[in-house]
Write a structure and sequence with these properties.
heterodimer, A: alpha+beta, Butyryl-Coa Dehydrogenase, subunit A, domain 1, Butyryl-CoA Dehydrogenase, subunit A, domain 3, four-stranded mixed sheet, 10 strands, 53% helix, globular, B: 12 helices, 46% helix, 14% strand
Chain lengths: 353, 402
C-alpha cells in the first residue's frame, strides 16, 4: 500500500501550480472578457503541458495516464482555481472521441489545435445522460441540446444521439442554431438546435459512454477536492488575520469548531477521491459509473459546505467577486451539478448497488 | 388564544387587496421577480414607492404625528403579507425603515420637517454609513472621525457595504466625535449630503455580478451641525435602535411562504428527466415540505412578537431570533430554487437588469435566469445587519444569559 506521489506525478502537480500561480482574480476577470469567455491561445499552453495527452490512450498518440494520474491533475487544477476547461473541453471530448474510435480527432484534440464541446444534455431531461431527443437520419441529425459547455469556443461539436451514437458536427454547419450564455463559473455555454444538420456519425456503445461519464464524474470530484482545499486554506489564513473585538476571529471557538469540521470534510473527500481513482483498474466498467457517481455526490457535498463556510467566514468580503474563494465556490457549484447533482448521483449509486 | 382576524382587520385586508389589484403595475411586479439582488433598483422601487405615497401608505411604520398611518401592528402585518402575496417589490429600507424612524424618535422638529417629507415623497434617497473596512461585526470599533469646525462637522474615514450609495443623495453615518472615552460613548449619528467633493463612491461587485453595494470614502466631507441626530455621544444608542429595526422591522414569513408556493408550482411543472414532474420526486417534495414547516413556524414566531408589541411588551432580542432563522431560510429557499432548474439554474447573466427590453433571453424557464444570481446574493443574508454569528452572541448573552 502506498499513497505517495511518484516523481512524475509530483512534477506534474508542481508544473500546474506554476502555470496557475500567476492568474490572480484580476487576471481571471480579464480572461473572462475574451470572446467565448476564455482566451483561446491559453488552450495551446494547456496542451503543451501534456495535460490533454495524459487523457488519451497511447494507441492514439496520447500518454495514457491512469485515473490516479488524471485525478491528481484535476485536483491540482482545482487547487490553483484554474480557469481552464480541462475537464469539459479536454478530457471529456478526448475520452468520447477515443471511445468512438476516432483516432484522428483525438490527435487534434490532444495537440490543442482543435477544441471540442460536448452536447450531451437535452432540454426537459434534467440530468439524464441517455440521448433520446436527438436523432440521426441519413447522416443528418436533428434535435435540441442545452448546457453545451465551451460551445462558443469550439471548433467541433460532439453530439450524443439516440441509438448510442456520437455525431461530429461543425459549429457553422447548415441547420445549427446556437444561443450562447454565460454560466456560473464565468465560462460560456450554449443551447444548440439542430435541423437536419450534416454530421459524421460513429457508434458509441453505451458501456463506453458510461465509462467516460464515470471518468468525468470522478475528475469533477477531484477538481472539487482541490477547490475545497484552496477555499479552506484561504479561510484558515483569513481568520488568523482578521481582527474583530480585539482578537483574530480564528481565536473564537465557535469558528474553530466549524473549521475543524471543514478540515475533516476535506480529508474525507481526499480519501474518497483517491480510493475511487485507485479502483479504476480493478472494477468492471458497469460498476465504474456507479462508484464515480457516489464519489462525486460525497465530495460535492463537502466542497459546497466548505465553500459556503468560506464565504460566511470572510464576511462582507466573501460576498464580493474580488476573492478567489468566490470564484472557487462558483466552479464547485457547476461541477456539483455536472453529470448529475448530489441527489441524482446518490440515487444512481444506491440503485445500482 | 386564537389566530382569528377581527371584522375590522378583515375589512382592512380586503381594502389592501383591492388597492394592490388596481395599483400594482405589472412591470413593477415583473421587475421585482426578475431582480436577483436583495432590493429592487430605484427604477422599479421608486415607482411603487410613489404609488404608495400617493395612497398615504408608504411610511406605515412611522408614528402618526410624523406622517405614519397609525396602523396597529396587526394591520402592518396584514399589509406586508398582502404585498408579499401580490408580488410587490421589497422597497429600500434605508430611508423608510432605518433613518426615518430614527429621525421620528430622536430628531428635532426642524429635522423632522426637513427630512421626513422628502423620504416619504421618494425625493431623497438614503444610504447607510455603518460598517467600515476594519469594523464589521465589531461595529463599535469604527474609526471614521468627525471634528467640529464652526457650525460644521468635517468627516474623514471610509464606509463599506453601502447599499445603493451610488443612487443616494444622503448618507446617515456613525462617526467618532470623541476618541478619549469608551468606544461606544464616543460615537455620534450624522446625516451627510453625498453631493460634495469630500464624498467618493466606489462600486463593489458581488459574486453574482450585481452592483448593490459600495465603498464610500469621506475625505473632509462636510455637514452642518444641524444634521446631527441626538446629542454628541448618543450615536450608539441610536445605532442600536436602528439595528433592531433593521433586524426585526419587517415580517419575513409572508415573502418566504410565497417563495415556497412558487417553488411548489415550479416543481409541479419542472421535468424530472425521466417520468413526470419534479414535484413527484419524494426527495424534492420532502425538501419543500421541510421549508414550508420552517416558514410556517416562523410566521407564528413573528406573530407572537407582534402580539407582544401590540400589548406594549418590548420585542428586544427576539428580533435577533427572527433575523437568524429568516436569513438561513432565505438561503435554503434560493438554493432549492436553483436546484429545481437543473442545468438551466447554472446560467449567470453578466448584464443587468434582467427585466425590460434590453434583458438577455432566458434559457429555459424565465425564473431560471435569476436563480443562480439570487442564490449567490442571498449569501449576504447571514452577514448584513449583523452576521448570524453576532445574532447568536446576542441571543446567548441577552436571552440565555450565558
Amino acid at each position: 500500500m502506498n499513497f505517495d506521489l511518484d516523481d512524475d506525478q509530483r512534477l506534474t502537480r508542481d508544473t500546474i501550480a506554476r502555470f496557475l500561480g500567476s492568474v490572480d482574480v484580476a487576471a481571471r476577470h480579464a480572461m473572462r472578457k475574451s470572446d467565448g469567455g476564455y482566451p483561446r491561445a491559453r488552450w495551446q499552453e494547456v496542451a503543451d503541458l501534456g495535460l490533454l495527452a495524459l487523457a488519451a490512450p497511447e494507441a492514439m498518440g496520447g500518454i495514457g495516464g491512469t485515473m490516479v494520474d488524471l485525478a491528481l491533475v484535476a485536483e491540482a487544477l482545482g487547487k490553483g482555481n484554474a480557469i481552464d476547461p480541462w475537464l469539459e473541453n479536454g478530457v471529456l471530448p478526448i475520452r468520447l472521441a477515443a471511445a468512438a474510435g476516432d483516432g484522428a480527432l483525438v490527435e487534434e484534440l490532444l495537440a490543442g489545435t482543435r477544441l471540442a464541446a460536448v452536447a450531451f444534455a437535452e432540454p426537459g431531461r434534467r440530468f439524464e445522460t441517455e440521448a433520446v431527443g436527438t436523432r440521426v437520419e441519413d447522416g443528418h441529425i436533428s434535435g435540441a441540446k442545452t448546457f453545451v459547455l465551451g460551445a462558443p469556443l469550439a471548433d467541433t461539436l460532439l453530439v450524443t444521439t439516440a441509438g448510442h451514437r456520437l455525431a461530429k458536427v461543425a459549429p457553422d454547419a447548415a441547420g445549427v442554431v446556437r444561443q450562447a450564455y454565460p454560466v456560473i463559473d464565468g465560462s460560456h455555454a450554449a443551447t444548440i438546435d439542430l435541423h437536419r444538420t450534416p454530421a459524421e456519425v460513429s457508434d458509441l456503445p453505451d458501456a463506453r459512454f458510461e465509462r467516460a461519464i464515470g471518468d468525468a464524474r470522478l475528475l469533477a470530484a477531484a477538481e472539487m477536492l482541490g477547490l475545497a482545499q484552496t477555499m479552506f486554506d484561504d479561510t484558515l489564513t483569513y481568520v488568523g488575520e482578521r481582527q474583530q473585538f480585539g482578537a483574530a476571529i480564528g481565536s473564537f471557538q465557535a469558528l474553530q469548531h466549524r473549521l475543524v469540521e471543514c478540515y475533516a470534510a476535506v480529508e474525507q473527500a481526499r480519501s474518497m477521491v483517491l480510493r475511487t481513482a485507485m479502483l479504476d483498474p480493478t472494477t468492471d466498467d458497469a460498476n465504474w459509473s456507479r462508484v464515480a457517481a457516489g464519489a462525486k455526490a460525497f465530495v460535492g457535498e463537502a466542497a459546497i459546505r466548505i465553500g459556503l463556510e468560506a464565504v460566511q467566514m470572510h464576511g462582507g468580503m466573501g460576498q464580493t467577486d474580488e476573492l478567489a474563494i468566490g470564484h472557487a465556490l462558483k466552479r464547485v457549484m457547476l461541477l456539483d451539478k455536472l453529470f448529475g447533482d448530489q441527489a441524482h448521483c446518490l440515487v444512481h449509486y444506491a440503485r445500482a448497488a | 388564544m386564537d389566530l382569528d382576524l377581527t371584522k375590522d382587520e378583515i375589512e382592512f385586508r380586503e381594502e389592501v387587496r383591492d388597492f394592490l389589484r388596481t395599483s400594482l403595475p405589472d412591470h413593477v411586479r415583473d421587475g421585482a421577480r426578475r431582480t436577483p439582488g436583495v432590493f429592487v433598483e430605484p427604477d422599479i422601487g421608486l415607482v411603487w414607492h410613489r404609488i404608495l405615497n400617493d395612497k398615504g401608505w408608504v411610511a406605515y411604520h412611522w408614528p402618526e404625528d410624523c406622517g405614519g398611518t397609525g396602523w396597529t401592528p396587526m394591520q402592518r402585518y396584514i399589509f406586508e403579507k398582502e404585498c408579499a402575496v401580490a408580488g410587490a417589490p421589497a422597497l429600500s429600507v434605508l430611508g423608510l425603515r432605518l433613518v426615518g424612524p430614527v429621525i421620528c424618535a430622536f430628531g428635532t422638529q426642524e429635522q423632522k420637517d426637513r427630512f421626513l417629507p422628502a423620504i416619504r415623497a421618494g425625493t431623497d434617497y438614503w444610504c447607510q454609513g455603518y460598517s467600515e473596512p476594519q469594523s464589521g461585526s465589531d461595529l463599535a470599533s469604527l474609526r471614521t472621525r468627525a471634528r467640529r469646525e464652526g457650525d460644521e462637522y468635517v468627516v474623514d474615514g471610509s464606509k463599506i457595504w453601502t447599499t445603493h450609495a451610488h443612487h443616494a443623495n444622503w448618507i446617515f453615518c456613525l462617526v467618532r466625535t470623541d476618541g478619549e472615552v469608551k468606544k461606544q460613548a464616543g460615537i455620534s449619528f450624522l446625516l451627510v449630503p453625498m453631493d460634495q467633493p469630500g464624498v467618493t463612491v466606489t462600486p463593489i461587485i458581488t459574486m453574482a455580478g450585481d452592483h448593490e453595494v459600495n465603498q464610500v470614502f469621506l475625505d473632509g466631507a462636510r455637514t452642518s451641525v444641524d444634521n446631527r441626530i441626538g446629542e454628541e455621544g448618543q450615536g450608539w444608542t441610536i445605532a442600536k435602535f436602528l439595528l433592531e429595526n433593521e433586524r426585526g422591522g419587517s415580517f419575513h414569513a409572508p415573502r418566504l411562504i410565497r417563495a415556497i408556493d412558487h417553488l411548489e408550482q415550479l416543481a409541479g411543472v419542472a421535468p424530472s428527466g425521466h417520468n413526470g414532474s419534479l414535484g413527484g420526486d419524494i426527495q424534492v417534495a420532502t425538501r419543500i415540505a421541510r421549508l414550508r414547516l420552517e416558514a410556517e413556524a416562523l410566521e407564528t414566531t413573528e406573530l407572537r412578537i407582534l402580539a407582544d408589541i401590540a400589548k406594549g411588551r418590548p420585542a428586544g432580542p427576539q428580533t435577533s431570533l427572527v433575523k437568524l432563522i429568516s436569513s438561513e431560510l432565505h438561503q435554503r429557499i434560493d438554493g432549492l430554487a436553483m436546484d429545481l432548474h437543473g442545468y438551466d439554474g447554472l446560467q449567470l447573466p453578466t448584464v443587468r437588469p434582467l427585466y425590460g427590453n434590453e434583458a438577455p433571453p432566458p434559457i429555459g424557464d424565465p425564473d431560471a435566469q435569476v436563480a443562480a444570481a439570487r442564490y449567490l446574493n442571498s449569501r449576504a443574508w447571514t452577514v448584513f445587519g449583523g452576521s448570524s454569528e453576532v445574532q447568536k452572541n446576542i441571543i446567548a448573552k441577552t436571552v440565555l444569559r450565558l
